[in-house]
């Protein structure tokens, strides 16, 4: 064996037959292998929203899998004092001040006809709900409809994603299909069908003449950049404090 000018065990190890032909992996190789083991490429579920700083779940919900069971309710009562039907915008889409958008008290329908009114059954007014959806796009896990006019149950919600670049097809939710012989309370229907309320989705709903209907919207999860900002700041404060102490945190973040 040649004398190793570097000396020590490293030289012996290099000459040791046990180490001959050993395939050392580069950082790229290791990263590629780690990616192959990831749930995103294998049999795991992958992304479910858990731990996402931008998502705000209701109650004890921690992921999209549990969002529907922990939804926040918002209740609105619509009244049509006319004999003819009136169409209301539950979500206005891209044009935020579109005619027909629901507000507290009296308002005109989508065709400009008077006679509709709305009232919040939740702590916040209808305007707060409109503003919330505008700033925090949300997923409705389902709705509950209550009315004494059974024909109202067959009035559909029409949903469409608006875009200046293309036309999208509509989604129609017809509450009446959820009625069954087992539901003895015909004045109330629960519709467990999710849909979006965002600043690009228009949602239309018709209230029949001389009818009052109460709709409960179950908000399961919202996109909340304010929450993400607070979370990221707290994480940064912790990291900076660990590195340089509380004084450093005060200097850089306050």
Describe the structure.
- The structure is a single chain.
- The N terminus is likely disordered.
- 22% of the residues lie in helices and 29% in strands.
- The chain has 254 residues and is of the alpha+beta class.
- It contains five helices and twelve strands.
- A hairpin with an 8-residue loop joins strand 4 and strand 5.
- The strands form two sheets. Strands 1, 2, 4, 5, 6, 9, 10 and 12 form an eight-stranded antiparallel beta sheet that branches. A four-stranded antiparallel beta sheet has the order 3-11-7-8, with no helix packed on it.
Short summary of the structure?
This protein has 254 residues and is an alpha+beta fold. The protein is 22% helix and 29% strand. Strands 1, 2, 4, 5, 6, 9, 10 and 12 form an eight-stranded antiparallel sheet that branches. Strands 3-11-7-8 form a four-stranded antiparallel sheet, with no helix packed on it.
Largest sheet: 8 strands, antiparallel
Unreliable parts? 2-22, 37-43
**Radius of gyration from CA coordinates:** 29 Å
Quickly give the structural class: alpha+beta
Average of per-residue pLDDT values: 84
Total beta-strand segments: 12
Tally of individual helices: 5
Distance N to C terminus: 64 Å
Described by the principal axes of the CA atoms, the overall outline is elongated
Could you estimate the helical fraction of the residues in percent?
A: 10-25%
Proportion of residues in extended strands: 25-35%
**Elements, N to C (H/E):** HHEEEEEHEEEEEEEHH
């Amino acid at each position: 064996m040649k004398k190793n000018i570097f000396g020590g065990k490293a030289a012996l190890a290099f000459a040791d037959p046990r180490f001959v032909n050993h395939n050392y992996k580069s950082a790229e190789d290791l990263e590629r292998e780690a990616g192959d083991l990831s749930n995103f490429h294998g049999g795991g579920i992958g992304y479910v929203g858990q731990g996402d700083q931008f998502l705000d779940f209701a109650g004890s919900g921690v992921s999209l899998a549990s969002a529907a069971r922990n939804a926040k309710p918002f209740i609105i009562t619509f009244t049509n004092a006319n004999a003819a039907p009136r169409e209301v915008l539950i979500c206005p889409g891209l044009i935020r001040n579109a005619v027909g958008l629901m507000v507290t008290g009296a308002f005109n329908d989508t065709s400009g006809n008077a006679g509709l009114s709305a009232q919040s059954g939740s702590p916040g007014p209808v305007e707060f709900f409109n503003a919330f959806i505008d700033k925090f796009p949300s997923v409705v896990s389902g709705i509950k409809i209550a009315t004494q006019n059974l024909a109202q149950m067959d009035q559909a919600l029409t949903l469409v994603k608006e875009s200046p670049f293309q036309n999208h097809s509509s989604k129609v939710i017809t509450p009446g299909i959820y009625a069954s012989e087992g539901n003895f309370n015909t004045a109330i229907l629960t519709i467990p069908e999710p849909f979006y309320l965002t600043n690009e989705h228009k949602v239309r709903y018709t209230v029949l003449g001389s009818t009052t209907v109460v709709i409960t919207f179950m908000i399961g999860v919202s996109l909340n950049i304010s929450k993400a900002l607070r979370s990221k700041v707290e994480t940064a404060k912790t990291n900076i404090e660990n590195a340089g102490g509380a004084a450093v945190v005060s200097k850089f973040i306050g």
